[in-house]
Write a structure and sequence with these properties.
The complex is a heterodimer of chains A (124) and B (596). With 124 residues, chain A is of the alpha+beta class. Chain A has one domain: Glutaredoxin (3-Layer(aba) Sandwich), CATH 3.40.30. Chain A is 39% helix and 15% strand. Chain A contains four helices and four strands, in the order H-E-H-H-E-E-E-H. Chain A has helices at residues 4-18, 36-41, 43-56, 96-108; strands at residues 28-33, 62-67, 79-82, 89-91. Chain A has a four-stranded mixed sheet. In chain A, helix 3 packs across helix 4. The longest helix of chain A is centred in the N-terminal third of the chain and has 15 residues, at 4-18. Chain A is elongated and about 60 Å long. The termini of chain A are far apart. Chain B is of the alpha/beta class and 596 residues long. Chain B is built from 25 helices and 19 strands. In chain B, strands 12-11-15-13-14 form a five-stranded mixed sheet. A four-stranded mixed sheet of chain B has the order 2-1-3-4, with helices on one face. Classes of the chains: A alpha+beta (124), B alpha/beta (596). At the A-B interface, helix 1, helix 3 and strand 2 of A face strand 1, helix 5 and helix 6 of B.
C-alpha cells in the first residue's frame, strides 16, 4: 500500500458490499416479489439488478429484500418501495433495465417513475 | 455482486457444534439452486451467542437462525434465499414475536451490548483483508502515519483513558509513553499477549478469530508511537483457528503493503511475527512471555527493570493484551473523547466478558464499563437455568475473586471490583448457582495454580501446594478451625513473597471465598457437612423406608451394587459400598432417596 488513495479505493469498493450486513429499521426497502409467479415472470434478474445497483452506488440505508406472492400474478415481476413517512410505491412488469431507471430516478433522485407504477396499468 | 449474504459463525464455539458442515451444505444447496452468483456464504467470527450454535444470519433481512442443522439447509435455501420466505420455525426464538420478527439488536442478549472491540466479529470474513478495509480497517493506521506525530498518538490514547484489558488495568497510553521516552532510539519491540489461559475465558480468542487485522493494525500504530519496527504476537497453540487466521491476516497485510517497508509511502516500516506458546499458564505473565519468545523456558523474572526499559531481548518493549489493541484503531478514528464518553469515571470504554457456568446464554458479551452484574447475568445472560438461585460470580479466573449475591448490583469496573476483593481480570465471568460449593470451587482454582506454577519461586511452588492440602483436608471432613487461620496466613504470605503475578494472585479466590462464604467453610469443619451437597466425603445417601415402594429401580442403576432389598419392600444403601454418584436419587420416582 503506497498511498491513502489506494486504501480509500478498496474501502469504497467494499463498503457498499459490507453495508448489506447493517440493520437499520429506518432504511428504505425495495421489496421484490419472488414467489413462483414472480420467478417465472423474470423476477430474479430484477432482484439482482436492484441489489447490484445499490451496492455499486454505495447507497446507504437501502435494503433490497424478497417477498412472496403479492396476489397480482399477471403483473409480475412486482417491486414495492417502502420508505418511512411515504406511501408504498408499487412497480409492475419490471425488468432489469427498468430497475436501473427506478434506482436512478426514484431511489437516488426521489422522483417516482410513474410510467412503471401499478397506476399506469388498467387493473379491472 | 451478491444480493444476499449468509454469515455463518466460524468461531471455535460454533465450529465445535458443526458450523463447518453447515457451510458445506449451504454452498452445495446454493449451487444446486443456481444462486451461486447471487448469494454469498461468509464464514465470520463469533456472534457471541455460543450456547445456540451453530449460528447463521441472512442479510439483508437480518434473519438470525440458531442451532441450525445440515438437514435444515435445503429448506432455508429454497424458501428463504430463493423465494424470500423466512423460515420462522428455525429463527432464534427471542426474535420471533406475536407482531412479527424483531431485529436482533432488540433482543435481550444484544440490546444492552455495545460492541467496540467486537465490532467486526460476526460481521466480516476474517480471512479477507478487503472486508476489513471496507469497515474502515487500516484507516486509523493511515491517519496516524500521515497526520499525527508519535506524541499525538500517545496523547490520544492517554486522553481516552484506555486501561489494559488483560486484567491489570494499567493505563495503556502511560505504558507507551514510558517505552517511547525511557530509552531514546534503538531497537524496540511491540508485543501482543494472546496467551489467554484463564479457565472459562475466550475473549481474546474470539477477537483473533473474528477480526485478526484489528490487532495487526493496532500493533503497527503502537510501533509508530514508540518507535519500534518489529512486533510479536504470542498466541497459544491451543487456539488453532486463531493461529490460522492470524497467519492468513499477516500474509495478506504484507501483500497489501500494510506490513513491511515504507507503509503508505512513509518512512515507517513495521512487521509482525507469530510465536506459539506451548500452553503454560505462566507464559501469560509478561516477563515469562518475553522469556519464552526469546526461546527460553517460560519463567518470570523480577521487575524492575520493567519491559518498557528492558523487555524482549533486553530492549524497550510494550506488551498489550489482544482486547486492548482491538480498541486502539477506533479510538484513533473516533477520537479520545468518544471513547472517554463511555464507561465510568476511572474505567473508560467497554469490556468483553466470556459468560460461562450456570447461565442460559453462554457466550461472549461486550458492555460499557459500569454495567451492573445483574444486567449482565439476568438480562443479557438470560438468567440461571432451571430456576436456581444466583450464588456468586467469579471474575478474573485463578487470579480473581468472587462477587456474592449481596453485591449483585455492583457497577462493574476496575476499581469497584478491587474494592470488594475481586478483580476485573481478563474477562472470564463464571456464574455459580446454589448447587456450587465454595470450598470445592476454591479447591478447583488452586488445583489449577498448583499445576501451572512454574516452580521458580518457593512461595508459589510450595505455598500453593500447602494451601491445596489444607483445602483437601477440609473437604474430606478432617479440617479444624486452626486450619482456617493457617490458610489465611499462608495466603497473605504468598501474596507478599511470590515472584510474579501468578503466585501473588493465586490466593485471591481462596481469600475472597473465605471472606464472603465463611459459614460454608465452618460448616465443612464443625458440622462435617457440605451445604451445597458437592463434597463427596461429607455426603451420605439414605433411603426413607416410608416412601420407598420397593420398585428396585435404584438397585438396578447403582453402579457399585450398594443397594439391596426385596421387591415391594423398602431398600437400603450399604454405605461402605456407596460411591456417592447420586444415580439412585436421580432415578427414584418417589423422592425416597435423600442426600445428607
Amino acid at each position: 500500500m503506497k498511498s491513502l488513495e489506494e486504501l480509500k479505493a478498496i474501502r469504497d469498493r467494499m463498503q457498499g458490499q459490507v453495508n448489506i450486513r447493517e440493520e437499520d429499521a429506518d432504511s428504505l426497502r425495495i421489496v421484490v416479489g419472488m414467489a413462483t409467479c414472480g420467478i417465472a415472470a423474470g423476477a430474479r434478474p430484477v432482484l439482482t439488478a436492484f441489489s447490484d445497483a445499490v451496492q455499486e452506488k454505495g447507497l446507504k440505508n437501502v435494503a433490497v429484500v424478497q417477498t412472496g406472492c403479492v396476489g397480482l400474478c399477471q403483473y409480475e415481476p412486482i417491486v414495492e418501495v417502502y420508505s418511512k413517512g411515504n406511501e408504498k410505491v408499487t412497480y409492475v412488469k419490471m425488468t432489469a433495465e427498468k430497475a436501473k431507471e427506478v434506482i436512478e430516478q426514484h431511489i437516488v433522485g426521489g422522483k417516482i417513475v410513474t410510467k412503471y407504477t401499478i397506476n399506469s396499468e388498467k387493473i379491472g | 455482486m451478491y444480493r444476499s449474504h449468509v454469515l455463518v459463525c466460524g468461531g471455535t464455539g460454533c465450529t465445535s457444534s458443526g458450523s463447518h458442515q453447515i457451510v458445506e451444505a449451504l454452498q452445495k444447496e446454493i449451487d444446486k439452486n443456481g444462486l451461486t452468483n447471487e448469494v454469498q456464504v461468509v464464514k465470520t467470527g463469533c456472534f457471541g451467542l455460543c450456547a445456540l450454535g451453530p449460528i447463521m444470519i441472512v442479510y439483508p433481512e437480518g434473519s438470525f437462525y440458531s442451532m441450525v442443522k445440515p438437514e435444515d439447509i435445503p429448506e432455508i435455501v429454497s424458501e428463504h434465499l430463493l423465494k424470500g420466505r423466512i423460515v420462522s420455525r428455525l429463527l432464534y426464538n427471542e426474535t420471533v414475536t406475536e407482531n412479527g420478527i424483531k431485529s436482533l439488536n432488540e433482543t435481550n442478549f444484544y440490546k444492552k451490548q455495545h460492541r467496540v472491540a467486537l465490532r467486526n466479529c460476526g460481521v466480516i470474513n476474517p480471512e479477507n483483508i478487503e472486508e476489513y478495509i471496507g469497515t474502515d480497517g487500516y484507516a486509523a493506521l493511515g491517519k496516524v502515519l500521515t497526520e499525527m506525530s508519535p506524541d499525538d498518538v500517545i496523547k490520544c490514547i492517554l486522553d481516552s483513558g484506555l486501561r489494559g484489558r488483560g486484567g491489570g488495568g494499567f493505563p495503556t497510553g502511560r505504558k507507551w509513553q514510558l517505552a517511547k521516552d525511557l530509552v531514546k532510539g534503538g531497537q524496540k519491540y511491540v508485543c501482543c499477549n494472546a496467551d489467554e489461559g484463564d479457565p472459562g475465558a475466550f475473549m481474546d480468542r474470539s477477537v483473533l478469530e473474528g477480526d485478526p487485522h484489528v490487532v495487526l493494525e493496532a500493533m503497527a500504530i503502537a510501533g509508530y508511537a514508540i518507535g519500534a519496527s518489529q512486533g510479536y504476537i504470542y498466541v497459544r497453540a491451543e487456539y488453532p483457528i486463531a493461529v490460522q487466521r492470524l497467519e492468513i491476516a499477516i500474509k495478506q497485510a504484507r501483500e497489501y503493503g500494510l506490513l513491511g517497508n515504507n507503509i503508505f509511502g512513509t518512512d515507517f516500516s513495521f512487521d509482525i511475527g507469530l510465536r506459539l506458546g506451548a500452553g503454560a499458564f505462566v507464559c501469560g505473565e509478561e516477563t515469562a512471555l518475553m522469556t519464552s519468545i526469546e526461546g527460553n523456558r517460560g519463567e518470570p523474572r523480577p521487575r524492575p527493570p520493567f519491559p518498557a526499559e528492558q523487555g524482549l531481548f533486553k530492549k524497550p518493549t510494550i506488551l498489550n493484551n489482544v482486547e486492548t489493541y482491538a480498541n486502539i484503531p477506533q479510538i484513533i478514528l473516533k477520537g479520545a473523547d468518544w471513547f472517554a464518553s463511555m464507561g465510568t469515571e476511572k474505567s473508560k470504554g467497554t469490556k468483553v466478558f466470556a459468560l460461562g457456568g450456570k447461565i442460559n446464554n453462554t457466550g461472549l458479551v461486550e458492555v460499557p464499563m459500569g454495567t451492573t452484574l445483574r444486567e449482565v447475568i439476568e438480562e443479557i445472560g438470560g438468567g440461571i437455568p432451571n430456576g436456581k438461585k444466583f450464588k456468586a460470580a467469579q471474575t478474573g479466573g485463578p487470579s480473581g475473586g468472587c462477587i456474592p449475591a449481596e453485591h449483585f448490583d455492583i457497577h462493574i469496573d476496575y476499581d469497584n471490583l478491587i474494592s470488594i476483593g475481586s478483580m476485573m481480570g481478563s474477562g472470564g465471568l463464571i456464574v455459580m448457582d446454589e448447587d456450587t460449593c465454595m470450598v470445592d470451587m476454591a479447591k478447583f482454582f488452586l488445583e489449577f495454580t498448583v499445576d501451572e506454577s512454574c516452580g521458580k519461586c518457593t512461595p508459589c511452588r510450595v505455598g500453593t501446594k500447602r494451601m491445596l492440602e489444607i483445602l483437601e483436608k477440609i473437604t474430606n471432613g478432617n479440617g479444624t478451625l486452626e486450619d482456617l487461620d493457617k490458610l489465611e496466613k499462608l495466603c497473605y504470605y504468598i501474596k507478599e513473597n511470590a515472584l510474579c503475578a501468578l503466585g501473588q494472585t493465586a490466593p485471591n479466590p481462596v481469600l475472597s471465598m473465605m471472606h464472603f462464604f465463611k459459614d460454608e467453610y465452618i460448616a465443612h469443619i464443625v458440622d462435617k457437612k457440605c451445604p451445597a451437597g458437592v463434597c463427596k466425603s461429607l455426603l451420605s445417601f439414605e433411603i426413607i423406608a416410608d416412601k420407598c415402594k420397593g420398585c428396585t429401580l435404584c438397585a438396578r442403576v447403582c453402579p457399585a451394587g450398594a443397594i439391596s432389598g426385596e421387591v415391594k419392600n423398602p431398600h437400603t444403601i450399604d454405605k461402605s459400598k456407596c460411591v456417592k454418584c447420586g444415580a439412585c436419587m436421580e432415578k427414584c420416582r418417589f423422592g425416597a432417596i435423600v442426600k445428607k
